[in-house]
Every structure is written in C-alpha cells, then in structure tokens.
Amino acid sequence: MLFLQLVLLVVFLPGSDSEDAVQEPISFQITLTVSFYNRSWTQSLGSAWLDEIQTHGWDNKTGAFIFLWPWSKGNWSNVELIKLEKLLYAYFVGLRQVFQDHVKHWQLEYPFQIQLAEGCELHFGEASVGFVKFAYQGADLTSFQNMTWWPSPKGGSRAQEVCKRFNQYHVLNEEIYTFFSDTCPKFLLGLLDAGKADLQRQVRPEAWLSTGPSPGPGRLLLVCHVSGFYPKPVLVMWMRGEQEQQGTQQGEVLPHADGTWYLQVSLDVKTREAAGLLCRVRHSSLRDQDMVLYWEQPHSKGLVFLAVMVPLVLLAGLTLWLWKC
Ligand SMILES: *[C@@H]1O[C@H](CO)[C@@H](O)[C@H](O)[C@H]1NC(C)=O
Ligand SMILES: *[C@@H]1O[C@H](CO)[C@@H](O)[C@H](O)[C@H]1NC(C)=O
Ligand SMILES: *[C@@H]1O[C@H](CO)[C@@H](O)[C@H](O)[C@H]1NC(C)=O
Ligand SMILES: *[C@@H]1O[C@H](CO)[C@@H](O)[C@H](O)[C@H]1NC(C)=O
User: Fold this and answer.
1) 276-288: per-residue pLDDT in tens?
2) Which of 22, 134, 183, 314 could form a disulfide linkage to 141, CB 3.0–4.6 angstroms apart?
3) Which atom of ligand 2 is nearest to the CA of 60?
4) Which of the listed residues 129, 133, 145, 177 should we mutate to test ligand 3's pocket, taking the one with most ligand atoms within 8 A of CB?
5) pLDDT, tens digit, for every residue of 20-57?
6) Range(s) for CATH 3.30.500.10 in the chain?
7) Which ligand is located closest to the Cα atom of residue 41?
8) CATH 2.60.40.10 in the chain, residues?
9) Which ligand is nearest to the CA of 96?
C-alpha cells in the first residue's frame, strides 16, 4: 500500500485536480513518553515515525534528534533542524514542568506516565490534518482540535482541568497549530521524496512450511511462514487447488529489525486431508508470480526414503555377496 501511495503521491501531488482517487492517508508522528517517579525524577523516551517506519530517535539528555536513515532530514537544512530541536526541547521541558506543578491539582499519582502523540496526516487531494493528543496512564486524556484542547470523554474532571489550563496558552497553541498543520506536512513531503529509494524498495519474501503444536488426535496444524518482505501488504492463503481453505488463521504481521516483515498463516486440518494442500504467497515484489509451497506429508517423505534406501541396501548386499564369491 505504501508503495501504491507513493506512486499515487507522485501522480496526485498538490496541484492535481483529481478528486475521486481513494487512497490511504500517510502520517508523520512524533511520540513522547514521560514517566514521572517523584518530584525530581523523570524519564523520557521520544521517537518519530513515518507510518510504521521509525525515522528518528531522540537523545533525552540533550534533546538532539537521532537520524535513523540517510533521508531522515528530509529536505531540511541542519540550521532548520537545530532550530526545531531547540524548540521541541523547550516545549518538552515546559511540559514536564507543567505536569510536575499540577500533580496535586490534577490528582496525578506517582509513579505515572504521560504519553504524547503529535503529527500530521496527509490525505490525498485534501488538506492535511494535524493532531496532538495526550494520554495519562495509557488512557486518552485530551486532544487538540481547531486551536482548542478538548477533554477526552473518559478523562473525567482531570481531563477538563488539564484542558482549562492548556487553553490559556494562546501563543503556544497558535504555534502548535501552525507547526502541525503547515510545517509538518511539508516536512513529511520532503521525507517521502528523500526516502523514495528505501520507501519504494521491493524485497522478496522467503517462505517455508512447518507443523505447529498438534490441535488434537488425527489433526495437524500446518504453518506457512513468510519472512523478510517489504513493503508490508502481503496475501498468504492455504489452498487446495484453486480453492481457498476455510479456517485459515492469520497471525499479526511482525517487524524484523531491518524494516522488513514476517507473517505466519496456519491451518488446522485432519491429518489424512493434508495431502494436496498448498500455501500461496502474493506480494508486490513477486509481481504476478505467486510463490506456491506444496505440503508434503511426512509419511510420503518416509516412503520416498524407503523407495530409495531399500534398493540401495539390496544392491549393496548383492555387491558384497558377488565380491565374496
Ligand atoms: C526519586 O526517585 C529516584 C528513583 O526512584 C530516587 O533515586 C530518588 O531518591 C527519589 N527522589 C526523591 C526526592 O524522592
Ligand atoms: C533516556 O532514554 C533511555 C532509553 O533510551 C533511558 O534508559 C534513560 O533512562 C532515559 N534518560 C532520561 C533522563 O530520561
Ligand atoms: C473543527 O475542525 C473540523 C475540521 O478539522 C471541522 O470539520 C469542524 O467543523 C470544526 N469545528 C468547529 C467547532 O469549529
Ligand atoms: C521541502 O519540500 C516540501 C514539499 O515538496 C516543500 O513544500 C518545502 O518548501 C521544502 N522545504 C525546503 C526547506 O526546501
């Protein structure tokens, strides 16, 4: 999909008047988690993400960005990036202080965690959308929309108090609004352009079959493993001939450290019905040539083994006998 998005992005960049193209939005998101242990001790962890690809880390002591890809700077100059680093760090320090100062008032209890997710989403052919939202102990607290902080319905009086406070920071709120509705989408476009070669790359999966833990007597759990592919969208099916099998269990698509993906898809079958099943893998890197893996029953492997070994042993015996004679 990402690949498709990028292709479409090239076609429908702003200025194009095509309105009816249906595409998934793509987002750039900064996340920050701050753990408050007591009045003087906090820990924080920040990162930035292009959809599901981490693009930046964050040095929590200096506030410096860590660029994880050669293209993580997008089309920004070092001067601009340092300016942004300083701005975000000042924002972070201020934020931490506001929470420390309001522990009593907002009924926060040590130790607690504040999570911040902020960024922008590019909708093709429409204005992009900026978002900023906070969570307390993993539950939504407040979000920023139309220049105003809104309490989350489940946030209770705490969320209302936080919003009341945040809504007093008029200048800051205007800056936040401009940053996420204007600066962020520009940066995102620069990032997509600079990272083209990596973002549009195609990596072929490897695939293999195995059995999982037996689901019961006379049954087999067939597992089809598909590993190391990029981009993420993939279709993996257990089939008999052209017939897709009911009861296929699809796992979650899991990341490898190198940015490629892994998926396993299993099927619970009666042992005697396993013959003739196959796993079919469809992925953009394979173009129209689906990968097909046939299930071979262990006992049929055993038969092949016997079929090869028995004549060999007989032959060896015969040779030995002839030689002795
Ligand atoms: C705050 O917590 C840290 C780590 O748990 C601890 O080392 C420190 O002594 C605590 N400080 C206070 C003032 O309680
Ligand atoms: C900074 O982040 C690291 C994890 O990346 C964490 O171990 C460390 O405690 C953090 N330091 C501060 C001061 O938050
Ligand atoms: C807030 O902004 C959204 C678009 O982001 C708009 O649809 C909505 O009408 C606005 N609401 C108010 C109260 O201005
Ligand atoms: C980066 O690229 C975006 C989108 O193409 C553009 O709007 C922006 O002006 C560029 N920024 C710089 C600093 O060149």
Assistant:
1) 999 999 999 999 8
2) 134
3) 1
4) 145
5) 334 678 999 999 999 999 999 999 999 999 998 999 99
6) 2-199
7) 1
8) 206-296
9) 2
Contacts of 39 (CB under 8 A, 6+ apart): 100, 103
Contact at 8 Å (CB) between 33 and 117? no
- Residues 132 and 148: their CA atoms lie apart, in Å, by 11
- pTM metric for this prediction: 0.75
- Asked whether the beta carbons of 73 and 12 are under 8 A apart, the reply is no
Does the C-beta of 110 come closer than 6 Å to ligand 1? no
The whole-angstrom separation of Cα 91 and Cα 47 is 15
The beta-strand segments (E) located in the chain are 26-38, 41-50, 53-58, 65-67, 112-122, 129-136, 139-145, 148-151, 206-211, 219-229, 235-240, 243-244, 248-250, 254-255, 261-270, 277-282, 291-294
Fold (CATH) for 206-296: Immunoglobulin-like (2.60.40)
Is 2-199 assigned to CATH 3.40.1280.10? no
SS3 178: helix
